[in-house]
Design goal:
It contains ten helices and twelve strands. The protein has helices at 10-22, 33-40, 60-70, 87-95, 108-139, 150-167, 181-188, 190-205, 231-246, 274-290; strands spanning 2-6, 26-30, 48-52, 77-82, 100-103, 171-178, 213-218, 221-227, 250-252, 255-257, 261-268, 296-298. It is α/β, with parallel strands linked by helices. It starts with a strand and ends with a strand. 49% of the residues lie in helices and 21% in strands. Strand 4, helix 4 (87-95) and strand 5 (100-103) form a beta-alpha-beta unit. Helix 8 packs across helix 9.
Length: 301
């Protein structure tokens, strides 16, 4: 773990550095508060800081306060070193955001114990953030296909429409639906239907551009959001999706099942009319189904 030491006294600073290196810590050294604040603004800054309270310019409490005000990610554990003994002084340090303090002069073993406790807290916070990030990602995905779920893909659509309006470009929306999925579920069972959904989504995902987004809209329906794509490009992409998905049967527990997919295409650039874009793609998809399935239809402009 990297620890920041900020102390204007060279002897005290060097002693701290020697002790922390001996205990296995990586050390970043600052000789005053301004230097400490600059180091803490770096992207990969230390997660644990030992700040001397009394320093010229920015003192330890002021640095602590600035660190807390500037935090927008993982917090830094801050230990203040101080010769102050009054309770009101200590309260001032904690109000500034310090996590702990140690009075000078201090015993090396006491500092070691404080740092060990601080490291445990920092490690636990990192583990918690990792879990929260994983849960956040999982909550945005469809558990069966691994694609964006309905709410996530609709949020992406609104974001891309907003960007396209600023950039005066178009966003294509392709709505795809696996043909006769209900009959597959009824005849072969839902495990076979799930296998069809997973493999069909995998095939379609392999056909889209790296900056396109694909999500499961519901049942056997999928949405592909393609920024900077006009109707001609969207129709070509949809035809590629149709061909790739249906080119060979999908292996299931019930044996290989041939499948086809129908697609509707709509293009727009107004985030306020996202629902109309979706309705247009749905209408085009319904026309593709009505015309015999396994085909691509564009929305009527």
């Amino acid at each position: 773990m990297n620890v920041l030491i900020a102390d204007d006294e060279p002897i005290s600073r060097r002693l701290l550095e020697i002790l922390l290196n001996k205990w296995g810590y990586d050390v970043t050294v600052a000789s005053n508060g301004e230097e400490a604040w600059q180091l803490m603004q770096q992207k990969e800054h230390p997660k644990l800081a030992i700040l001397d309270w009394m320093m010229p310019g920015l003192d330890g409490v002021q640095v602590c306060r600035k660190i807390r005000q500037g935090e927008n990610g993982s917090p830094t554990y801050i230990l203040l070193l101080t010769a102050k003994q009054e309770k009101e002084d200590m309260d001032g340090g904690f109000r500034a955001g310090a996590d702990d303090y140690l009075a000078k002069p201090f015993a090396a073993q006491e500092l070691k114990a404080r740092l060990r406790a601080a490291k445990r807290i920092v490690d636990l916070e990192e583990q918690l953030r990792s879990v929260q990030k994983t849960l956040s990602i999982e909550s945005a995905l469809d558990p069966l296909t691994g694609l964006w779920n309905r709410s996530s893909i609709l949020e992406i659509l609104h974001r891309e429409l907003h960007r396209s309006r600023r950039q005066r470009s178009m966003v294509a929306l392709v709505m795809a639906d696996i043909d006769h999925l209900k009959q597959i579920n009824l005849r072969y069972g839902y495990l076979a239907g799930d296998a069809v959904l997973r493999e069909a989504s995998r095939r379609m995902r392999g056909c889209i551009r790296v900056y396109d987004s694909m999500g499961r809209y519901g049942g056997g329906q999928f949405i592909i959001v393609s920024p900077a794509c006009d109707q001609s490009g969207a129709l070509c992409q949809a035809e590629r999706l149709r061909s790739r998905t249906s080119q060979q049967p999908i292996e299931t527990f019930e044996g290989p099942l041939p499948i086809t997919v129908s697609l509707g295409v709509a293009v727009g650039n107004d985030e306020k009319q996202a629902h109309l874009l979706i309705s247009s793609a749905e209408a085009a998809l319904a026309e593709a189904k009505k015309s015999g399935h396994n085909r691509v239809e564009a929305a009527v402009v």
